[in-house]
Design brief:
The protein is mainly α. 76% of the residues lie in helices and 0% in strands.
Length: 150
């Protein structure tokens, strides 16, 4: 079952659940709309990696908004966003641990023959496709910078 099929099935289930499924239903509808918009923008049916990319983008948008709402004292919105993130993460592949990212980064640094911080671009270009949707890009970048400056 593809992610899009799973989203559709879960949407139907959430509709049947009525009140308990309201948040889940709204999140799934929003994701399906984002996927449709991405399809229109790209001009073709999205592949599974592209669907994961859109989902990861939606999670990242919400994670970036949480500190702003917290600063503004809007705990109600923070809680809502955290719930949406929890629902979205159910559809993403398992996230890599920091140690797994470090190991992948070390392998990639060795593979591309990176010698120092100047080679950050080469390493990131090779590493990002391996971590897409499974790790936060900022964390990957931070780890690669640490490893290259050693």
């Amino acid at each position: 079952m593809t992610l899009e099929e799973r989203l559709l099935a879960d949407m139907k289930e959430a509709m049947k659940a009525r009140e308990e499924g309201k948040t889940r239903l709204s999140v799934i509808r929003m994701v399906r709309a984002a996927l449709k918009n991405a399809e229109i923008a790209r001009g073709h049916k999205l592949s599974e990696p592209e669907v994961i990319e859109v989902l990861a983008h939606e999670v990242k948008e919400r994670q970036d908004s949480i500190p702003e709402f917290a600063r503004g004292g809007r705990q109600d919105l923070v809680a809502k966003l955290e719930e949406e993130i929890r629902i979205l993460k159910e559809y993403l592949p398992a996230q890599l641990s920091e140690e797994e990212i470090r190991n992948l980064a070390r392998e990639t640094i060795a593979k591309v023959g990176a010698a120092g911080p100047r080679d950050l671009g080469k390493v990131m270009a090779a590493l990002i496709p391996q971590t897409k949707g499974r790790a936060d890009g900022r964390l990957v970048n931070q780890i690669v910078r640490e490893l290259l400056s050693e």
